[in-house]
Amino acid sequence: MPEPITLVLGGTGVKGVASIGVLQSLHNHGIKIKKIIASGVSALISAQFALGEEPNLLTEEFTHFFVDNSRSIWGLEQLTGLLMSRRPRVTGSLSYFLRERSYCSANLKSNSTLSWETVEPQITRLFGYKTFSDLMIPLAISVIDLKRGINMLMDKGTLHYSLKASIAFPGVLPPVSVDNMELVSSTIYCELPLDNITRKDSPVLTVDMPSIFSEDNPRTLLEVIAIVDDIRSAAIKEKLLTKIDYLFNLEGMNKFRWGDYNQIPQIVEQARKETDRLLKKTTLP
Amino acid sequence: MKVGLCLGGGGSRGYAHIGAIRALTEAGIKIDIVNGTSIGAIIGGMYALYQDVDKMTDLVKQVTSSVNVNHFNLFRQSKEGPPFLQSWLTEAVCDISALRKSIQSHHNNLKALRILFDEKRFEDTRIPFSAVAMDIRTGKTAIIKKGKLIDGVLASASLPGIFPPVARGKKLLVDGYVLANIPVEELRQQGTDFIISIGLVPAPSNDYHNGIDLIYYIESLKQRQLDKWAIAESDFHIKVDMSKFDSSHFENYLVAMERGYKATQKVIPLLKNKLEKANA
Predict the structure, then answer these.
(1) pTM higher than 0.95, yes or no?
(2) Cβ contacts (< 8 Å) between B97 and chain A: which residues?
(3) What confidence tens digit (pLDDT) does each residue in A244-281 have?
(4) Which terminus in chain A has less CB density within 10 A, N or C?
């Protein structure tokens, strides 16, 4: 009888959507999961999976969201290295300038480019008032509490607020106020929720995607700051990954441009194939 | 045993390093090698070059009186002042942020560094010195120990967003605080046996009013974590309490020096004890 594992899933934006393929593959191979620790978009996908639903049903939702809101998520693309190319053809265009400028303007005047009205109805439709205890696999959602300045795991109560907090990427969606806490996504701090893993969680499997680090020169102040932010998150991730038992590095994903939102179904499919390949190569406990 | 001094970044709080160095010198603690990041590189470079705390204090005084070294934070200014100025500044900040690489040029920095270092080179220092910067083209820390002191120190103190990155060969360098605000590992790589590190950054403040503040706050949480890991690698860490000190005003250098001096003086017996044990 194989020992069940703790699965750690993160990834911001489109990188997180790839978790759908990862969960499909693990499920198809009959890998026993005792707990999922997730952040960002992966938290939504993991909740869907833990409810016993097919996570792939979310692929279309995410594709719509990213395509419809691509003008407002400049910060998400830049601060997480999702937008690979800083080549003049992309960055020299008027539309790029306007996206960058409106990101700055929105974040000086308020605290985000999007409001909850854009995504809250979908979260309610998908998860209603379900609670963590309705899940068939225990799930812990990684967030940052701004009031106390700490990374923490949410694993009790209604799913709704925790799921909102998991995708409240600073500068893109506003922080979520609940129970005297002010919560945002932890993916801006570290792409993978590796902070709160304990010895009890062992053996732990985590899935990492290649960072798209372009060696192009930054052209603007915000790009410089975004690169710096990305480099720091990567350094934290690298250090925290040393305490993980099993690491799946989905190297084959680097053929995609994360900023190409119409390719989301292909990204999911590739993540599934990559996980299949790695499962064949690795002996889990 | 090779004893190294590792000076952390922290804007104008960095003058506390001069006070700390005064206390170490008075206690007769001999430093064989020094490195630093940002203001730590500026003070470290002066210390390695002159080995004279009085001269360092005089030079700082000279810089403060002749060069405008306060880097004005436009992001902050756009939230203060009369409403018409606020909205005008907000628009200006947005244009600058999406069109230029930084708010300020290096003009005043170079003027200040010329007073401190003249044309002196890393090779001229009395004890080995290195400045720590970060290459944003590779995402790796860069240790600079060759060439003109002005050039190396300038790169180490190019705060991203405020000052433009500095090109050096194939590298594009910014302030080393990004990955190594307290560059202990970088000093260890140079064969240092006992590292005394000095940190100046206070606890992150969660006083945020907009999205930019919020992102800056999360950056400070990351910095706290990276500093924690760096300090754990050091043999003796001196934490100077710089809370309630406005780091954007460089003319408060005497207050900072005093705090650095007192914090270091207090731990001298403990440090001597540790050094003796390490020597044995």
Answers:
(1) no
(2) 100-101, 104, 220-222
(3) 999 999 988 888 777 778 889 999 999 999 999 999 98
(4) N
